[in-house]
Recover the amino acids of this structure.
């Protein structure tokens, strides 16, 4: 997009300021290639607020705590789907059965960037299928920094095409088809929702209102938006929150070689926490 085609002036300084704030507040690293994307997403905020320039918007952002959340919401990328990277759910099923053979207390799973909820609901469906019960011994925490997507996640209502690639039996078992004014929509069954607790959480916040230890942490397709030092910080906080035999499930293009002291590759984009013994061997 050329400067002429733009409705609002957007200077290098505006872009730099927005990049700094996105990094500071949500860890999101915006490369110069993202300039047009940043323009179009923040321009929507200017229109919503009736502002005329990016400079005015940046002042407004400084003075209004409420805008901080809308700013972050505007810059997140929320692409997701049910049973995305399905091999993870096969491994999780095996992991859950192995845990259940060893102990009785609930298996705890954290979907740490859950977006509109498809990942968390896929975890819950896997648990129900694995244990053949609507009340499996599994508790799921699902969090995201973006409060808009979290609202959608909690509702659990999706356009039918979001489930069109799912196995037909799964759709029958786990979703209710909308009728009348809800035609073309599906809603996840309440028994699936009951296994999940949704909450907002910024992976960069100094405190996480989260109680471990977890058997599995899903942190998929979010680290790609963070730079390596930010990734390392988050990984070093995940490490003590995982049980020794717990697993960290990452996204298809995420590798944590720079954090080999914390996690070792255990399978396709699945990582195990390094033990104290491994760490001391160096
Ligand atoms: C591309 S989606 C991935 C969704 C899902 N995990 C998956 O793999 O399908 C990335 C999600 O990360 C969230 N996110 C970005 N920065 C975050 C942060 N600092 N803390 C928590 N979530 C964050 C975004 O809001 C977005 O919903």
């Amino acid at each position: 997009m050329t400067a002429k085609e733009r409705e609002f002036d957007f200077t290098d300084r505006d872009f730099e300021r927005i990049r700094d704030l996105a990094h500071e507040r949500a860890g999101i690293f915006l490369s110069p290639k993202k300039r047009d994307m940043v323009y179009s997403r923040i321009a929507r905020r200017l229109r919503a607020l009736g502002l005329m320039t990016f400079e005015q918007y940046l002042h407004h952002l400084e003075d209004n705590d409420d805008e901080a959340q809308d700013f972050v919401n505007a810059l997140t990328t929320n692409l997701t789907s049910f049973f995305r990277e399905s091999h993870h759910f096969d491994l999780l099923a095996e992991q859950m059965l192995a845990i259940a053979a060893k102990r009785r207390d609930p298996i705890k799973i954290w979907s740490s960037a859950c977006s509109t909820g498809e990942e968390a609901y896929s975890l819950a469906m896997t648990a129900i299928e694995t244990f053949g019960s609507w009340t499996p011994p599994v508790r799921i925490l699902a969090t995201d920094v973006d409060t808009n997507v979290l609202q959608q996640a909690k509702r659990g209502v999706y356009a039918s095409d979001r489930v069109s690639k799912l196995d037909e039996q799964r759709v029958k078992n786990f979703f209710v088809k909308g009728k009348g004014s809800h035609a073309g929509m599906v809603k996840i069954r309440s028994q699936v929702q009951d296994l999940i607790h949704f909450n907002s959480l910024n992976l960069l916040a100094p405190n996480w209102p989260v109680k471990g230890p977890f058997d599995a942490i899903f942190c998929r397709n979010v680290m790609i938006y963070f730079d390596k030092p930010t990734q390392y910080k988050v990984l070093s906080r995940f490490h003590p929150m995982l049980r020794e035999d717990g697993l960290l499930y990452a996204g298809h293009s995420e590798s944590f070689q720079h954090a080999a002291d914390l996690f070792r590759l255990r399978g396709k984009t699945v990582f195990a926490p390094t033990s104290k013994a491994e760490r001391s061997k160096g």
Observations:
- The CA atoms of residues 149 and 209 lie 19 Å apart.
- Strands lie at 107-111, 138-144, 157-159, 175-177, 185-188, 196-200, 214-219, 242-250, 263-267, 270-273.
- Residues 26-28, 76-80, 84, 113, 115, 119, 144-146, 149, 202-204, 220-222, 225, 251 surround S-adenosylmethionine (CB under 6 Å).
- The chain has two domains: 3-75, 87-281.
